[in-house]
Amino acid sequence: MSLTSIINGSGSIYEDRFRTILEEAKPLKSDFTTISGKKPFLNICTNYPYILETKYEAQLVGFTFDYLARFMIAQKIKKNRMEVTKKLVAFAGLDLLNRHKFEEDFDIDGMFNSSINQIIEYIQGNMDDFNILIRSAIFLSRLEHVFRSKLFPTTEYLQQWFEEVPKNINQDLTQLCTDFETEFVNVLINEDSEVIFNPIFGHASEIVHGADADIFIDGTLYDFKTIKRNGYRKENTMQLIGYYLLDRINCEEFNGTPVGSGIKNIAFYKARFGEIEKVDVSNISNIEIHVENAKSLFNKWDFSLKRMNKMDNIN
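Above: the chain sequence. Below: its structure as tokens.
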């Protein structure tokens, strides 16, 4: 189970207990503030009409916006900018596809390498055609979707990967990224910003079978959302506080390295509303009690997993 799976479903006694801790530790709606000064989680109209037609298109835009947002940030900073192209989930999707047999031959590796090269050119300031960047990011997103869903595209659908991006998807992503540059990049990013792309949480992430956040910037861990209806959702806030707890567990229980200079705030960026909803973790009620409860649980959880592995090796 991943962190998301733990939040959304039942599992082992340890997974169920961790979900309870997340529910108890999650920040309340009243804990959040916004950069704009508006009330958080206002269900107002989106900045642009919603033009996506299917659930898959919405998922694809969600994945792709995450990639594009990170590439836009990488272009603005000096340190570790090329880290954004490493350890991508798309690599795992590429590996799955290469081990799957299709009726026709597709140069998936060639398209992947071309996409990465175009992204590098953009980050380095040598390419300014945003439509090309969108096409490259969508290819990575499709690979990531294969890995996460374990669903392989049909031959007919795979052919579409090598064609032009559908007009509505291209338009939607262009609008989202235009707002992102205005409301996020130009406000929060400078060339000396401390940025960690796709932060993970060491052994604590391993115990929950995978947990990686979107991005860490200057003390704040951000989760990007492309939802079309805003509002306070406990599952989202449980995931956000889950990342914080995993970071504390990894550092204090397993002697791991903290994310950047340390997570002081957790926040959502709502792309369709151009809004940042943020909470100072020190203001969350009883946060240190929740941290201690989580550390104690993971100590026992880790011991249990090691014992099970040892028994499997004996057998």
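Residues 159 and 238 are 38 Å apart (CA to CA).
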